[in-house]
């Protein structure tokens, strides 16, 4: 998806242990709020918003997996508090 073009704005472009949720520009909380706003517009914007939110959801799940495999690996992740809260909520 085009939403992953923001990976080219950071160095290194890919880091296996990095949690991109909340880190990359198009994966930030402000961007996610805009994706939610897209749901209130007519098609095709609703469909684009749904796709972007699903993408953010899968990235969040990937961050949760990384957090449970190696908590030290995501210790500097912007979404660390969110990961901790979700883990506690789910009892993981």
Which short descriptors sum up this protein?
0% strand
Task: Give your account of this protein's structure.
- The protein has one domain (2-90).
- The chain is 50% helix and 0% strand.
- The chain has helices at 29-38, 45-69, 80-90.
- Helix 2 (45-69) crosses helix 3.
The main β sheet shows up as: none
Number of domains: 1
Helix proportion of residues, in percent? 40-55%
Mean pLDDT figure:
87
Uncertain stretches: none
Percent of residues in β-strands: under 5%
What is the radius of gyration?
14 Å
**CA-CA gap between termini:** 30 Å
SS element count, helices:
3
Give the tally of β-strands. 0
Shape category:
globular
Structural class: mainly alpha
Task: Write the H/E string, N to C.
Answer: HHH
Give me a quick take on this structure:
The protein is built from 3 helices and no strands.
